[in-house]
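Data card: per-record layout.
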Amino acid sequence: MIDTLKDRCDLLVRNRAAILKKFTFQESLLGIASGLIFVMAEQEADVEKMAECRKLLKKSTRPLSNLRAKSELVMLSKMSLAAEPEKYLDDVLDVYKKVCRGILLENAYMALAAMLIVDLGRQDDAESIVAKAGELTKRLERVHPILTSDEDTSYVMLLALTDRSVDDIVSDIDSGYGYLKKTKKLGADKNALFELCEVLAVSYGDMEGKCDKAVRIVRALKARGADFGGGQEFSSLGALVDLDMDADAVAEEILDAEAYLRAEKGWGDSSVDRKKRMMYASLLLADVCGRDPASVADPVISNPVLSNTITLYKAKQMSLLMSIGGSLLQAAFSIAGALCESESDEKSDADTAGSDTTTIP
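The structure for this 361-residue chain is written out next.
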C-alpha cells in the first residue's frame, strides 16, 4: 500500500473516533463523512472548534434545518476548516436560500449543494449556477424520469458548476448509462449506474472510455475476490477513473486499504461492511493520487480567482465530495433517518451549551 494512503487511513480512523466521542448521538456513518472532510484537508479533526461552530449554527438555524440533523457534522467540519467560520456559515445560508427558492419540500442534499458552491468560491455566481442546475434537472427528468430524484441534487449542482453545456452533460449521462447497462451489462442497481454516470460527466474525455475504466476496475476487484456491489457505494468509482493508474494497481491499493481499515477497532462490524470499507478506500486513494494535477484529467470547473493547479485540485476534491455526498451520506441518511433528525437536537445540549434564536433556514 502507498505510504501516503496508509497515513490517510490512520487519519480517518483517528478523526472518526474523535468526532463520535465528542458528538455521541450521531450516526457512525456520518462521523466517517465528517472525518473524511478533515482527511481531504490533511488535518486532524478539531472537535473543540466543531463544538464552537455548533453554537454558531444553532443560533442561525431552526432546530429541524437541513443544515443540522443529518448534515450537521459535515457542516461543522467545513465551518471549522474555514478561516472565518461565521462568514462561511453566512455564505452557505445565503446560497442555500437561493438553492431552495421555489422548492416546496427542501432536503438535506440541497444543503450539501450549497456547501459545494461556497467551497469552490462561486457564491457570487449562485443564481446562474442554480438556474443551470434547474434546467439540467428538468432535462434529466425528461430523459430518465424514474432515475432522477432528490438524491441527484448534489450531483446536478456539481455538474452545473462545470463549464460544460447542459446538452453535453445530458448526452454524456444518457450515453454512459446506456453503454454500461446494455453494452457492458454491468450488474449494478439502475440508480447506482445513473449516479456513476453523473460523476463521470464532471470531467472532459470520451464517456465510453471513462465507463470502460470503471468496468476494468470492477473486474479487477472481482478477479481478486472482491465485489463493489451495485448499490450506494458504486458511484465512488467515479472518483477513480481519471487517475493515471491502471485498473489492477487501483484494485490492489483499494483492497490493501480495505484490509487495513478492517483491522481497526469499530471498522469490522456490521455497520461498516466490506463494500463500505472499499468505498472509503476508493475515496482516500483518489484523494491521495488526485493531488497531482498532472495525474488527473481536467475536471472543467473553472474559477478565475484560483491558479490552474489549485482549480484542478479543488475540482477533484469536489468530485470526491460528490461521491461522499451521493454514496456515503445517502447510506447514512437511510440508516439514521428520523433518529438523527430528532436526537441530534434533543440531545445536542449535552455536548455543547447554546440556544436557538434566529430562524434562518
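Known properties of this structure: The first helix runs from residue 3 to 22. Residues 292-316, 331-360 have pLDDT under 50 and may be disordered.

See the next section for split statistics.
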